[in-house]
Amino acid sequence: MNISDTSNSPENPNSHPENSEQPVGSLPFGRPLQSEFNDGLDYPRLGSVSFRRGTLTENQEKMWEENWPRIGTVLSDELIDIDQWFGRTGAKTILEIGSGTGTSTAAMAPLEADTNIIACELYKPGLAKLMGAAVRENLDNIRMIRGDGVEVLNRMFRPASLDGVRIYFPDPWPKARHHKRRIIQSGVLHLIATRLKPGGVLHVATDHADYAEWIAELVNVEPLLEFRGWPWPECPQLTHRQVITKFEGKGLKKDHVITEFLWQRTDQPAAETEHTDV
Ligand SMILES: C[S@@+](CC[C@H](N)C(=O)[O-])C[C@H]1O[C@@H](n2cnc3c(N)ncnc32)[C@H](O)[C@@H]1O
């Protein structure tokens, strides 16, 4: 993610006349959905941040238009019926937030074919790349949501509906004045905990030393999440990425150390919380 001026972007809602027709898989016109959580916890504030542009090739566009209605959906206020979306009942479901180009998502999917994998990303070319792999390799257990993962969790998933949440190499926002944009914060940990089933697993990995320290300070702030640290032997979800992610590769080239954080949802019921739109 970077900060850019999208005033002339074809996807910038403000640059379109009201009656333009939206292509499939576009973010809706108008202000993006943003919740105000009234729970005293910290949530990322993205402010004027927008997501980098990028265009699809002609072939990718064709594939996108053909396949998005079946395997993709855009952030909305509609709760997802997971069983209906995947056309099967009772399978475990993992949400990956910030799947990027989906290299590891696609590599892991066949090894967890009995698990529903939902990749959430804002960056259309990244989703298109993952879609290409899913279509080519017949990866039936992958679905995609385009939108902000925090809003997606809050608006589209019922409490206790997920078996796992993955956040691999989230944007580190290295400058101190941007730390408030980091996705790992007390409020997001709480939100994730409410969406996980008891026993469900949150897996975060980073190659950024300062972000690792930041996360280390937060490992015990959420009472509904038990910090387990490193993958434990009977961890109920695949924790080995099989193929290193794009950003993991970039980090490794710079000799960065990869730090993995795992939490498990406790059995305690979550209290109901309210949020309002801002
Ligand atoms: C540093 S990249 C890592 C991508 C991939 N996981 C990897 O390891 O190669 C972070 C990704 O998270 C996405 N992202 C950032 N904030 C997000 C959010 N709130 N919801 C969904 N995706 C987000 C960005 O668009 C970007 O593709």
UniProtKB/TrEMBL annotation:
The protein's UniProt keywords, in alphabetical order, are: Methyltransferase, S-adenosyl-L-methionine, Transferase, tRNA processing
So what does this one do?
Catalyzes the formation of N(7)-methylguanine at position 46 (m7G46) in tRNA.
Specify the pathway: tRNA modification; N(7)-methylguanine-tRNA biosynthesis
Q: Which positions in this protein are listed as binding S-adenosyl-L-methionine?
A: E96, E121, D148, D171
- Keyword Methyltransferase, does the record have it? yes
Identify the SUPFAM superfamilies for this entry. S-adenosyl-L-methionine-dependent methyltransferases (SSF53335)
Q: Where along the chain is composition biased (Low complexity)?
A: 7-23
Q: Can you quote a single GO CC term?
A: tRNA methyltransferase complex
Report the family membership: Belongs to the class I-like SAM-binding methyltransferase superfamily. TrmB family.
Q: Where does substrate bind?
A: K175, D207, T245, K246, F247, E248
Q: Which reaction does it catalyse?
A: guanosine(46) in tRNA + S-adenosyl-L-methionine = N(7)-methylguanosine(46) in tRNA + S-adenosyl-L-homocysteine
Annotated Gene Ontology MF terms? tRNA (guanine(46)-N7)-methyltransferase activity
Region annotation Disordered: where it falls in the sequence: 1-33
Please verify whether the record's keywords include Phosphoprotein. Answer: no
* Record EC number: 2.1.1.33
Q: What gene name is listed for this protein?
A: trmB
Q: What is this protein called?
A: tRNA (guanine-N(7)-)-methyltransferase
Q: Which PANTHER family match?
A: 3-DEOXY-D-MANNO-OCTULOSONIC-ACID TRANSFERASE/TRNA GUANINE-N 7 - -METHYLTRANSFERASE, PENTACOTRIPEPTIDE-REPEAT REGION OF PRORP DOMAIN-CONTAINING PROTEIN
**Which Pfam families does the entry mention?**
Methyltransf_4
